[in-house]
């Protein structure tokens, strides 16, 4: 069975950049009939909170993603401890006692000598007596994984054949001085334990993959298939970031955007599929293949989001809108059909509905008063239909000789107080004859 995982850190609200891999994993799992694991990477106890974790679940549900399994790394420490002990016993994890300052000086010296600033494995030369002396001085070790130092090759489902040469890398620190785990070891252990078959994530992780494959192999695990997608950037080409305060999914939700519009923008941008309305996430899952993902960056355009959001609303059926209309105190299919084509965000309908229910402040130019008085006198008798507007304006055109803007705009301004808005042919029957009489001078 195909099993994927999306692994956010609950250190803030997730943004569009986070939503991209969340959705691409979901599409892949749906397409393959597989399993979707939500893994909270909450080992950073200083920054991770349950509030942020709960927020992530809310955001996923809003997008339309329902994980098959939720795990929290903070509850799985025993697994990581066992992997740590095995790597130590096998000589692949070794203690180091250098301070951050000492490491910085070594890197600076290496650069000055024209050498790559990678760790020199000095800690491997320490004797038991050396380590005892350092610990008696109060030093606590951090632990590094001893890389094989070889070309690690893998086939990427998006980027094609990849090679990461771990000989050009420092042995990575897996455990901090305080005994807490960095990202890499828990991630690998979880991928093995949860039988993850495919790791779908941003291309900024390609360089990590060689290290992770070596650790997986050292622990006797099965190496998953990797797929590294292009990264979503903002309109200025800047990557989304919690630290930079990038707009979160919660912000988009609070601003009234449709979840599907946000999902389409987060996932389809930077692919060969058109950014246009789709019926559901499942339709995208059926159509989006990894071969369609560009190797260049994917730039998010907020103007494009506004347009897409509007197009989704303009195509929304009354049945799909009914519950939300009711929550706003609006009823009737005719109201929805007459107003939806003027919506950018759903809640805009609350103000637009006032064009029907009132109050409306008519805008009446002095030079149009005589014309509007005649229009009032010529209002057709009820019942009114979709044809009433053309019948009324046709009669006014014949009587006054007015046409085009000179005919229609004074009527629109008097009846709605706006230069633009819903078509008056559909609005007029909803306002009714009495309502129109009240607005005309």
Automatic annotation (TrEMBL):
Example of a GO MF term: glutamate-tRNA ligase activity
InterPro entries with a match to the protein in the record: aa-tRNA-synth_I_cd-bd, aa-tRNA-synth_I_codon-bd_sub2, aa-tRNA-synth_I_CS, aa_tRNA-synth_I_cd-bd_sf, Glu-tRNA-ligase_bac/mito, Glu/Gln-tRNA-synth, Glu/Gln-tRNA-synth_Ib_cat-dom, GluQ/Sye
Keyword Aminoacyl-tRNA synthetase listed: yes
Coiled coil: none
Leader sequence segment: none
Pfam families: Anticodon_2, tRNA-synt_1c
GO biological process, one term: glutamyl-tRNA aminoacylation
GO terms for cellular component: cytoplasm
Reaction catalysis annotation: tRNA(Glu) + L-glutamate + ATP = L-glutamyl-tRNA(Glu) + AMP + diphosphate
Classification via PROSITE patterns: AA_TRNA_LIGASE_I (PS00178)
Keywords tagged on the record: Aminoacyl-tRNA synthetase, ATP-binding, Cytoplasm, Ligase, Nucleotide-binding, Protein biosynthesis
Residue window of motif 'HIGH' region: 8-18
Protein's cellular compartments: Cytoplasm
Domain Glutamyl/glutaminyl-tRNA synthetase class Ib catalytic, residue spans: 4-296
Keyword Membrane among UniProt keywords: no
Sequence motif 'KMSKS' region, location on chain: 239-243
Residues binding ATP, per UniProt: 242
Assembly and binders: Monomer.
Family classification: Belongs to the class-I aminoacyl-tRNA synthetase family. Glutamate--tRNA ligase type 1 subfamily.
Role: Catalyzes the attachment of glutamate to tRNA(Glu) in a two-step reaction: glutamate is first activated by ATP to form Glu-AMP and then transferred to the acceptor end of tRNA(Glu).
Protein name: Glutamate--tRNA ligase
The organism's taxonomic lineage, starting at the top: Bacteria, Pseudomonadati, Pseudomonadota, Alphaproteobacteria, Hyphomicrobiales
